[in-house]
Design goal:
Growth Hormone, Chain: A; globular; mainly alpha; 0% strand
Length: 414
């Protein structure tokens, strides 16, 4: 039997989930604005723009690989010991290892820490989304899912405004890693005071509750749903990190140190569009239907990414408006996913299933980013060439979604 919770408790759950994802976004946005400055400082005379771009790809790939593992392991933990415990542990993970970034002396040390930060980053999403979805009624879930998606990109927007006024430079970059450790306070609060999901508590005593959620997800009848979820989670993730994220180091290179705040301005325009896009993605999915919405987003994201990298350039008047538009459209996926993935999996494996679907794509993303880094070197360090080429990944979504079940109108009850 599911024990009802009060509106006040639901609000606390939502604030904690939003806060965890907000600071998740800070971690995701940190290296795009700091990578070149970190590399210049740590490599000294050995730094070149091409080497800097290659290290940006490595840092991104390490974060994605860690996120993929963390999403699976900590998502599974959320089904075994509870959403709240796994969420608190995930927040503490990314906060502690991000803070240690302020102490590094080599690129290799930073690379290891970005992997460890990724473990926590990956673990937050499935547990926060499952917890919020299970604590709010079905009629509220499009709004709650939109807030989940918007909060992740809200963290990127918040960081962009901070670095717009307090610049990250080769001489001053360690402070941003000290700042990234602050969410540890939220992680402690979640572990000590946040109540557990009533749906998870009810299912824990059920005979149907598996001892190994991942094992159940990787065999019939749930295997097909797992594969579909992985495909739909991988395409926007791979497009975002192998293609879209190159716009920030591109802006950094073109603007140079004479306009050190420009990369923060560019990320701010993208993040503002992303906050709106990741909120309205869930509303569009509720309005058009899950599959039709995903296909439409895939086509529009492909077109706008090509326009961004081939139709404009940093410092041109058209650049920032197009960055905003691309950020809006390409992140509609991230409002769609928090609505769709909890509907795809039953309660007993919801956190693990959502974690696998969302984060296994980060394995592909890690490989894709490494490949993009090699492509970047092969095309002579051309940001437009690598961004436009990798942007075609979005087009695959218009094909893959037709293998997905339409969950429109489905309740979260098993």
């Amino acid at each position: 039997m599911i024990t009802p919770i009060s509106g006040r408790v639901r609000l606390f759950v939502l604030l904690a989930a939003v806060g965890g994802l907000l600071f998740d976004g800070v971690e995701l946005g940190l290296m795009p604005v700091a990578s070149l400055s970190v590399s210049r400082a740590l490599l000294g005379t050995g730094f070149t723009p091409t080497i800097g771009g290659d290290w940006f790809a490595r840092f991104t790939a390490a974060l994605m690989l860690g996120s993929a593992i963390g999403g699976i392991v900590l998502g599974n933990l959320g089904d075994v010991v509870g959403r709240t415990k796994a969420l608190g542990v995930s927040i503490l993970f990314y906060s502690a290892f991000a803070g240690l970034g302020a102490l590094v002396r080599t690129q290799e040390q930073m690379l290891v820490l970005r992997f460890l930060v990724g473990l926590g980053v990956g673990g937050v999403w499935p547990n926060a989304v499952a917890l919020a979805a299970e604590c709010w009624p079905d009629k509220s879930r499009p709004v709650v899912a939109g807030l989940m998606g918007a909060s992740l990109n809200g963290g990127i927007l918040m960081l962009s405004q901070i670095v717009r006024f307090w610049h990250v430079t080769p001489e001053s970059w360690r402070w941003i890693f000290h700042l990234a450790a602050a969410p540890a306070l939220l992680g402690i609060a979640v572990l000590l005071w946040l109540p557990e999901s009533p749906r998870w508590l009810a299912g824990r005593s059920s005979a149907r509750s598996p001892s190994a959620p991942v094992r159940e997800l990787l065999r019939p009848p749930l295997l097909r749903l797992t594969i579909v979820g992985i495909l739909l989670g991988s395409i926007p993730m791979l497009g975002a990190w192998a293609a879209s994220k190159w716009m920030i180091p591109w802006a950094d290179k073109v603007a140079g140190e004479s306009e050190a705040g420009y990369k923060g301005i560019a990320q701010g325009w993208w993040a503002f569009g992303a906050v709106l896009g990741s909120y309205f993605g869930a509303q569009i999915a509720a309005w058009l239907g899950r599959r039709r919405a995903y296909a439409m987003i895939s086509i529009c994201a492909t077109l706008l990414t090509l326009i961004l990298f081939l139709g404009t350039a940093p410092l041109r008047p058209s650049f920032l408006p197009i960055v905003f538009a691309q950020g809006f459209v390409a992140t509609l996926f991230f409002g769609w996913l928090p609505l769709y993935l909890p509907e795809l999996f039953p309660t007993r494996v919801r956190a693990a299933g959502s974690g696998i679907a969302y984060n296994v794509g980060r394995f592909a993303t890690a490989i894709g980013v490494f490949a993009a880094g090699s492509l970047f070197a092969a095309v002579g360090g051309s940001y437009p060439a690598v961004g436009a080429s990798c942007g075609m990944i979005y087009a695959l979504g218009a094909i893959a979604v037709w293998w997905a079940p339409d969950t429109s109108g489905r309740h979260l009850d098993d």
